[in-house]
Amino acid sequence: MTAKKLCGATHLLVTPSGEPTGMVDRVLAEQGLTRRIGLTVNQFVLAPRIVASSNLVAVLAERAVTLSGVAKALHVAAVPLALPDVRIQMLWHRRTNRDPALSWLRSRIAELCRAL
Question: Most CB atoms within 10 A, among 1, 21, 65, 76?
Answer without folding.
Answer: 65
